[in-house]
Amino acid sequence: MLNEEEKKLANLIDKHVQRHVGFAIYRLPYTRNPKLVVQSNGPLYTSNDLSELDGMEGFVLSPYTLKYNSPIVLVKPQFKAEGIEEIIKTLSDLPALDKDLPTPGLYVHNMTRAEYQEAFNCCKKNIESGRADKVVLARSQSFKTSISVGHLFAESCQKYPRMMIYLFFSPMTGVWLGCSPEILVDGHKGEWSTMALAGTQLYKENAEWDEKNRLEQQVVESYIKNILDSMGAQIMVGEPHTVRAGHLIHLRTDFKIKLPHEVGVGTIAKHLHPTPAICGRPCEVASEIIDTDEPTARLYYSGIVGYVSAEKESHLYVNLRCLTTQSGRVTIYAGGGIMKSSDADEEWHETEIKMDTMINILDQ
């Protein structure tokens, strides 16, 4: 239940979306205060190269694959605020803009169970033939509904304290909102961290992990370590452990990294993305299989989202547990790793429980 201050913030967020101005509001895990970034003047920065984010500052939304209709978009911090009270004041003081809000017209697809089965079978054939060890198959669920994205953001912050919660709007992307448990790159000035996050099941005390989930997590861990080694990083690797993300739990391995100061956050992200957790292994082959056999247009799902800065800390996350909304429709995304031992019914169910992260907020 939102208090009066949170309701006021939610209403102001909804009004601000209609201003046709690039902005992001986000809250980092285990923190209380949300942060706001608004750029009301000048064109938003766009790129098709993550390394170009080195030396820049602002909130970024980057797609799974870089295509002309879904570029990297960065909102520069022309206005910044932290904490609900300060954000309310900042949004209230911004001048009103008399502009109609266009629809970006991004393609979304509501994958049926039959389409999923067909795509699953294609993935399994590629795995059984030895072409790949793992392929991550994503799907989307789209439906008509009228929602308040401001209330969704505020409710998400309440319900998921362990996740990074964000709401991003630009005229090119429309509205995206997500609750991510997975850090891609975090830190600054040569001191960085990342994680291998894979394996999924519903939360329960003293949960045990089967061989399929442990192997899936080891694939991601091994890949990240090899990438960091190739960059010449000094690495400290933790032990795999169970972490909670809302009603789900995952296996996670933490990495602490040291790199030369001149290696920026965009360059690190470019090396790491996409990991086998969202793509598969080998990544190049899995990407080809996804392009050929996955009906879902991922757009910004499983891409990168967060704040970048050359002087202060950067916080980039994998864009999981997310939705987009346009023209009175909401589209929710989820994916799961297909391996040799995978079962289609079990994998479909895993995407359903992942989608519940966002559906549980829509049902509030």
Secondary structure elements and pairings:
Layout (H helix, E strand, L loop, with lengths): L3 H14 L4 E6 L7 E5 L5 E3 L10 E5 L9 E4 L3 E4 L1 H10 L19 H16 L5 E11 L4 H11 L4 E7 L3 E7 L2 E6 L2 E12 L8 H20 L3 E4 L3 E5 L2 E11 L6 H8 L7 E2 L1 H11 L10 E5 L5 E5 L3 E5 L2 E10 L5 H19 L2
Helix pairs in contact: 1-2, 1-4
Labels describing this entry:
364 residues; alpha+beta; ten-stranded antiparallel sheet; nine-stranded antiparallel sheet; 8 helices; 32% strand; globular
The helix-strand sequence is HEEEEEEHHEHEEEEHEEEHEHEEEEH
Beta content comes to 25-35%
The first-to-last residue Cα distance is 9 Å
Helical percentage: 25-40%
The low-confidence parts are none
What does the main sheet amount to? 10 strands, antiparallel
Q: Tell me, briefly, the overall form.
A: globular
Helix segment tally: 8
Count all strands and give the number: 19
Overall mean confidence score, pLDDT: 92
Q: What structural class is derived from the secondary structure elements?
A: alpha+beta
CA radius of gyration is: 20 Å
Concise summary:
With 364 residues, this protein is α+β, with helices and mostly antiparallel strands. It contains 8 helices and 19 strands.
Structural write-up:
The structure is a single chain. The chain has 364 residues and is of the alpha+beta class. The chain contains 8 helices and 19 strands. The protein has helices at residues 4-17, 84-93, 113-128, 149-159, 211-230, 265-272, 283-293, 344-362, and strands at 22-27, 35-39, 45-47, 58-62, 72-75, 79-82, 134-144, 164-170, 174-180, 183-188, 191-202, 234-237, 241-245, 248-258, 280-281, 304-308, 314-318, 322-326, 329-338. The strands form 2 sheets. Strands 3, 4, 5, 10, 11, 12, 13, 14, 16 and 17 form a 10-stranded antiparallel sheet that branches. Strand 1 (22-27) and strand 2 (35-39) form a beta hairpin. It is globular.
